[in-house]
Design goal:
- The structure is a single chain.
- The chain is an alpha/beta fold and 314 residues long.
- The chain has a domain of 218 residues: Rossmann fold (3-Layer(aba) Sandwich), CATH 3.40.50.
- It contains nine helices and 13 strands.
- The strands form four sheets. The protein has a seven-stranded parallel sheet, sandwiched between helices.
- Helix 3 runs parallel beside helix 4, helix 5 packs across helix 9 and helix 7 packs across helix 9.
- The longest helix has 22 residues.
- The relative contact order is 0.14.
- It binds nicotinamide-adenine-dinucleotide (NAD) and uridine-5'-diphosphate (UDP).
- Nicotinamide-adenine-dinucleotide binds next to helix 1, helix 3 and strand 5.
């Protein structure tokens, strides 16, 4: 039977790909988004799909929606450091009050609810790679705290709603994900490097470029998210979803410049932002074991597809 699926943050980068995936499976999608960092353009191809409905709404405000929902995905939150620091109080409200509103909706509907959490709950990790058992190293009062602590509090809320109200929950910790429909100006490293290189500007490397990240292509990520939502109810997470191939920012810049094949592109070193994690790489043993999931798209292939997307946009 067709499911009714609410996707909060569905007009964003990941959310719009999730809308596509759920609709492809034949279910109905109710996309809720305040369009703060998302774009109507990301979902415009779905306008004529009778199984798709969009409502512009801020999840910080109560959601007055019927009681026929089967599943709720909470992806609503600014995600790039540039975006989540624009209005830090709104970022906390979205992650805390917004999560409560969606959890209450899950309670009213007896729906399963999935939280898009983040590797940022590990902060600047002292354990490498990061497994779900690691409690993290987060500065509670720094410039990134509104996001890190907001997401940590959301995880707490999910588990307390499960303990106290018996809500069916799924918590996934997403590691750096990239691909088509990223915002060109969101300040994230992949979108920055590609767009700088495409417009002939120097590629900006923060710090000395030796910090590491592990980049997951969007299709792999959505596959993991979908599997988590549809696996056995007893699997609640938290569960890491990401690509464990680890690269320095210097290596990433080199790869992108190589792919564009333009020797004239230069690099420019800039100050490292405060509290920028030095290394990040997911331990995905749990996802492999419980979800039978692992990423399939290499950084090489994923970058080519993403570069093509931005080239077509220009
Ligand atoms: P995004 O900014 O493209 O998408 C977020 C969406 O949420 C946007 O459409 C935005 O308009 C919407 N939104 C923000 N605040 C809202 C509010 N109060 N009410 C309603 N809608 C609101 O970012 P993304 O990369 O697609 O990230 C999606 C989710 O995944 C976020 O929760 C993010 O924290 C999480 N995540 C993403 C990554 C990544 O690398 N992309 C990594 C870790 C976690
Ligand atoms: N970064 C960079 N140049 C940029 C943007 C980001 O060197 O133009 C670095 C940033 O300092 C961090 C890494 O790239 O070490 C990943 O940054 P991003 O904002 O994409 O995500 P984060 O993992 O920090 O949330």
């Amino acid at each position: 039977m067709k499911k009714n699926v609410l996707i909060a943050g569905g007009a964003g980068f990941l959310g719009s790909h999730l809308c596509d995936r759920v609709l492809k499976n034949g279910d109905n999608v109710l996309c809720i988004d305040n369009l703060s960092t998302g774009r109507k353009k990301n979902i415009s191809h779905l306008n004529n799909n009778t199984n798709f409905k969009f409502i512009e709404h801020d999840i910080v405000e109560e959601l007055k929606i019927g009681n026929s929902l089967d599943q709720i995905y909470n992806l609503a939150s600014p995600a790039s450091p540039t975006n989540y620091q624009l209005d830090r109080i709104q970022t906390i409200k979205t992650n805390v009050i917004g999560s409560i509103n969606l959890l209450e909706l899950a309670k009213k509907n007896n729906a399963t609810i999935l939280q898009a959490s983040t590797s940022e709950v590990y902060g600047d990790p002292e354990v490498h790679p990061q497994a779900e058992t690691y409690w993290g190293n987060v500065n509670p009062i720094g410039p990134r705290s509104c996001y890190d602590e907001g997401k940590r509090c959301a995880e707490t809320l999910f588990f307390d709603y499960h303990r106290q109200e018996n809500i069916k929950i799924k918590v996934m910790r997403i590691f750096n994900t990239y691909g088509p429909r990223m915002q060109a100006d969101d300040g994230r490293v992949v979108s920055n490097f590609i767009n700088q290189a495409l417009s002939g500007k120097p590629v900006t490397i923060y710090g000395d470029g030796t910090q590491t990240r592990s980049f997951c292509y969007v299709d792999d990520l959505i596959d993991g998210m979908y599997k988590l939502m549809h696996c056995n109810e007893s699997i609640k997470g938290p569960i890491n979803i990401g690509n464990p191939d680890e690269f320095t920012m210097n290596e990433l810049a080199e790869k992108i410049i190589d792919k564009l094949g333009d020797q004239k592109i230069s690099t420019q070193f800039k100050i490292l932002p405060e509290d920028d994690p030095k290394q990040r790489k997911p331990d995905i043993s749990l996802a492999k074991k419980l979800l039978k999931w692992k990423p399939e798209v290499s950084l090489e292939d994923g970058l080519e597809r993403t570069i093509k997307f931005f080239q077509e946009k220009i």
